[in-house]
Amino acid sequence: MTKIDRYILTLFLRTVLVCFCSIAGIFVVFHAFASMEELVKQGKEQGGLLPVMAGYYGPYLLLLFDWTGAIITLMAFLFTVGWLRRTGELTSTLAAGISHGRLLRPMIVASLLIVTVQLFSRELLLPGYRDALTMKAKDITGESEQPVSPQYDKVNRVLIDGRVLIAQARLVKDPSFRLDGDFPGFGDLLLAPTCRWVDADENHSGGYLLEDVQHPENIDELPSVGVGDRPIIYTSRDQTWLAPRQCFFATTVHLNLLQTKQSATRMASVAELIGRVRNPAVHSSLSLQVLMHERIIRPALDFTLILLGLPLVVNRRGRNLFVLIAVAMGTVLAFFMLKTLCGALGGNGYWLSPAMAAWTPLIVLGPLAYVRYRDVQIQ
């Protein structure tokens, strides 16, 4: 890396940081003013306003970076090269025999690193904050209730429902398990005031622990039941780790699948989305399959969007910077229109399969981005 490379890279990364901080600052200021009463109230209860705001808006800044990283990088390309052109540094560098491709190389590599950081943030960080990201400011304590989206366990033949759930506490209030399978002695319902999702351990697989079971009333007298060697409903009669009036229902229908908010699904990791699609116990919609494929190719699409703007950076026609920004925004709009159209067709089962709906934008725009990249390299 030469001195000019370090200079351009520093200028580019500084521009990316300024653009992101500007967008993030606008978001935080407007949202904080709209929710200041709730934030101040929580600040008094939790030791200060700044820690509460940091805990509340920190995950949102990660989400904002995931949404805008590629667009900000494209804008930073235009601003950086525009600044070099305005100061005359671009002209002098090109006069020294350095091509546009060589000049842009540090920024292209940095863009690839930004896309990679987005990938790690999206897969490793955001899934852990998805419950916090679905809350409003008044629900910052994490005790907010949301409606339950009933899910049918096709393997065990049980409909899982409830009145409300608290995602961060992994708790469902007034759960109702309608038993359509063969469960001798249990009748057709399991009812309790609360149940909690419990991960798998040495005693059981993942499932729901029901407290103070109301129906059936003789729950402590019933033996555990299942299919073959696979237990489904555990009771305290033959399971020493269960207390009286407790019951455990083993299932692969995770609590996250009961959430009605679509953002909880959209912020799931690729591994979790693949697990949902392959889960035989639940129905996988076409839109969920499209989302899974879109998440797999998201880094390639983000980098494609950046490469599509390279001819604007070179600006052979000498257009005004604001005109270039307008053209860049038009490119971004066309990019997302194509992506949204393909996703809608695949999600509704028209013309395109879920896989083709997700991959079509990359198939169409990928070669065009490569041609534009090669065109810049020889100038």
Automatic annotation (TrEMBL):
Superkingdom of origin organism: Bacteria
TM annotation in the entry: 12-34, 60-83, 103-121, 296-314, 321-338, 350-371
Localization: Cell membrane
Record-linked PANTHER family: LIPOPOLYSACCHARIDE EXPORT SYSTEM PERMEASE PROTEIN LPTG, SLR0882 PROTEIN-RELATED
One cellular component (GO) term of this entry: ATP-binding cassette (ABC) transporter complex
UniProt keyword Mitochondrion present: no
Membrane topology: Multi-pass membrane protein
Keywords: Cell membrane, Membrane, Transmembrane, Transmembrane helix
Any coiled-coil regions, as ranges: none
Keyword Transmembrane (UniProt): yes
Name of the molecule in the record: Putative permease YjgP/YjgQ family protein
GO biological process terms held by the UniProt record: lipopolysaccharide transport
